[in-house]
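Appendix B: a complete holo record

For completeness, this appendix reproduces one full record from the ligand-bound portion of the collection. The bound molecule is pyridoxal-5'-phosphate. The inputs are the chain sequence and the ligand SMILES; the output is the full three-dimensional arrangement of the complex, encoded as structure tokens. No fields have been trimmed.
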Amino acid sequence: MKKVNSQTTPIYRNSGFFFESLEQIEDAFARNTVVTPEDGYIYSRYDNPTVVDLERRIAEMEQGRYSIAAPSGMAAIDIALSAFEKPSGNRWLFFTEIYGGTNYYIKNVLNDRRGIDTMHLEPENGGYDVEYVAQAIARLKPDVLYFEPVTNPMLIVCNGREIIARAKQMGVRVVVDNTFATPYLWQPLTDGADIVLHSTTKYFSGHGDLAGGVLTMNDEQIYVSAKNYRKFCGMQPSPDDAARLLSYLDSFECRFACQIDNAQKLAHYLNESKQYVENVIYPGLEGDISNSIARDLFRGVGYGAIVTFQIRGGRAAAARFIELLRGEINVVPTLGDAHTIMMPIAQVWGDKYPEQGYFRVSVGTEPFHKIEKNVKKAFENLGVPK
Ligand SMILES: *Cc1c(COP(=O)(O)O)cnc(C)c1O
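The structure of the chain with pyridoxal-5'-phosphate bound, as generated:
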């Protein structure tokens, strides 16, 4: 086939790539590297040119050297941790306030199946103060620290930059799940993290129709180890999904900037609607407990696109609010979509946050007046005692 002038990345659906000679086969199989050269693709489970294009794009976004794409955020987490797994024993310390699926993975896969004991750090007053984390590291002596800079769903921001610095001083490897902040707000590798990872199912893809994950790093040894794990376990994403994600990344910054702006406006609107709203949590609100830490960590670029609030009137009001918004702002168990979506908190995170009436809103890219109009109309029609 002749070359065409394609602006978008071609989708190479190949399982394998043909060799031109016996010598080329010998070269390819003698090559002892996980970085496939442009003309040396062998088999798509090892490397695929469409997926490699995606990985290069993401490495650039993170200001990192190497990226590894995965079929989901959970796969990216598994691949990331594989780079540090030692048969002689592991001392991994996880914040407890991380994605629920990650906590299930730790318990079901790491603890119960692989027999890896893990250490867990509870928050102090809901959050993770630098000194508190540094003391825990000194006491527990982990070799890997794993955290997220923004807790879910209560949106408490930690000083990730300082936490990485302190961990590195003590010789600890650091893995950051930065799905909520994205590289638009923070690039942990530039602050010394060993691996930054994302569920690209969320903001990177942003249209609620694609699952994926990615991890990025600077250290070659970590890269080789993680890349080999993906290869041996067959955890590569499909070239079709990689191409779709590449297209969505074209609008990522623009989408996320709009979502952040809408979230800031929604937080203000909710804060001014006290007759319907009990409490608003958004790091961009003056007076929010995370306001100054978030401003430092995200260098004033913004405060993210999730707003958590509590409606007045308890469970009844929450149920009515969901009904009134159906079709406009749906209850969907994900986040980061171009559509505004929400989740009730007590029904999902009830073991930790049983209080009724709380919602986590993932703010979309709709014109803000539309979001405001829908929420306002729902409030006015609640019909429960104020
Ligand atoms: C969704 C999510 C994950 C898991 O990603 P999947 O794509 O669902 O596998 C991990 N971390 C965070 C912070 C998430 O929000």
